[in-house]
Design goal:
about 160 residues, alpha+beta, 4 helices
Amino acid sequence: MPIYEFYCDACNTIFNFFSRSINTTASPKCPACKTKTLSRQMSAFAVTGRAKEAGGEEGELPFDESKMEQAMQMLAGEAERINEDDPRQAADLMRKLTKMTGLELGSGMEEALRRMEKGEDPEQIEAEMGDLLENEDPFQLGAKKGGIAGRRPAPRRDETLYDL
């Protein structure tokens, strides 16, 4: 009997839903705001970790590993359903990735993404911007660890188990 995770953008909250059978299509309404239809999240079925090393912040990664893992799982799940002929869908996945991880896009990648969101052909964008994109780090760390100043904080988790 699976437990599914769903995200409410309005509440910035992840909710857990219990299902008596496998259900990959249901999208419930938010239990908190009651109007927003939730989006399904990929969730790990096992989590591994390590104890914090003595010495504090030395050796820590400059981003939240759990956020990155969750974002990559979500991205992988949505990438399977993407229409490869629609550049807007690819751009939407990239926006979700950066939002969830707290990474920022470099200026060239940001411009390429804006053009894809308008529906421009990614191959044409690459042909015109290829040199710029190759010489730029596509991702940049935010202003502070774990997120970017002014961006939405990581979603909170509602630990209640709702029926799907």
